[in-house]
Amino acid sequence: MKSLRLTYADLELDADALARGFLDLRQCDRVIRDEDVTVLKPNGQPLVVYAKDALPMDLCRETFAAIRHLEPSSDNRGTASGMPRHFPVKSDGTRSRTTNAVPVPSAVMGFLDPNPRTPWCRMTRFTLDHLEEYEALQPLLRAIDVKYRGLTPEHWGRQRAFANRVGSDFIVPGTAFSSITVNRNYCTAAHTDGGNYRAGLAATAVLSGGIFNGSQLIFPRYRTGVDLRMGGLCVADMHELHGNAPLRVACGGVRFSPVCYMRAGIGACGTQGEEWRRAAERSWRVTC
């Protein structure tokens, strides 16, 4: 595999100004497409590890056929949607839960960690509504995990150790992932994935059919893009600012991009039974 170590002279120092904005290939000096490449940051840490033919094509086609009909939707993608979340201040000084967010074709499969509004670990609603498709994804997710381990064993090892401490109830079976963001024909604005486990990396694949082009994954600070196609795998540091180039589809083209990662807050999860009791206690307090 070819290795490219960037220097500080390669960096776009004011890249933070691009956050929430939509990117294009003008933010790239290099686009990885037809070769296996490791791109290292100036400090020697991996930015992107790309393997062009990492995943069995037959498995990719079978998985695409099983999920092609999915229509993920979420209004909670924050910066990635290009729309800032805004909670207006009410007359009593508290903030309304009304937002100016708009639904985007993206949703999370797998598990989520506690947050102030839902302070327990749980399987996502999108997963519960599509359990058959979640199960159909799992052979591909296990293949992604195996390849992730081979490409970046140190980061995978730390993520696997973290998953082992959590236990199995909130981990995708046979993997070091807790969650999969499923995007359908969706190009994100420039954002960072601040909730991911920092010592690990995220792994992205593409499942597609029909005619499309664009949607390259761009890291504007490093002037680097990845043109990911079906069968390829991109393991990357999604804590860095990233987003997609415009996507153009024709003739019913469909492009899914499942992004596999570990939520940092999953470390706070107990067993499934413990989390159910926590949810029930919370519901009882609210009711009373």
Q: What fraction strand?
A: 15-25%
Please compute the radius of gyration using only Cα atoms.
19 Å
Mean pLDDT: 90
Choose one word for the global shape.
globular
User: What portion of residues is helical?
Assistant: 10-25%
Topology diagram in text:
Layout lengths: L1 E4 L24 E3 L4 E4 L5 E6 L5 H11 L38 E7 L9 E2 L1 H5 L1 H21 L1 H14 L12 E6 L17 E3 L2 E8 L2 E3 L4 E3 L6 E4 L6 E2 L2 E15 L10 H16 L1
Parallel strand pairs: 1-3, 2-11
Antiparallel strand pairs: 3-4, 4-12, 5-6, 5-7, 7-14, 8-12, 8-14, 9-14, 10-11, 10-13
Helix pairs in contact: 1-3, 3-4
Explained architecture:
This protein is α+β, with helices and mostly antiparallel strands and 288 residues long. The protein has one domain: Double-stranded beta-helix, CATH 3.60.130. The protein starts with a strand and ends with a helix. It is globular and about 55 Å long. Helix 3 packs across helix 4 (153-166). It has helices at 57-67, 125-129, 131-151, 153-166, 272-287; strands at residues 2-5, 30-32, 37-40, 46-51, 106-112, 122-123, 179-184, 202-204, 207-214, 217-219, 224-226, 233-236, 243-244, 247-261. It contains 5 helices and 14 strands. Helices cover 23% and strands 24% of the residues.
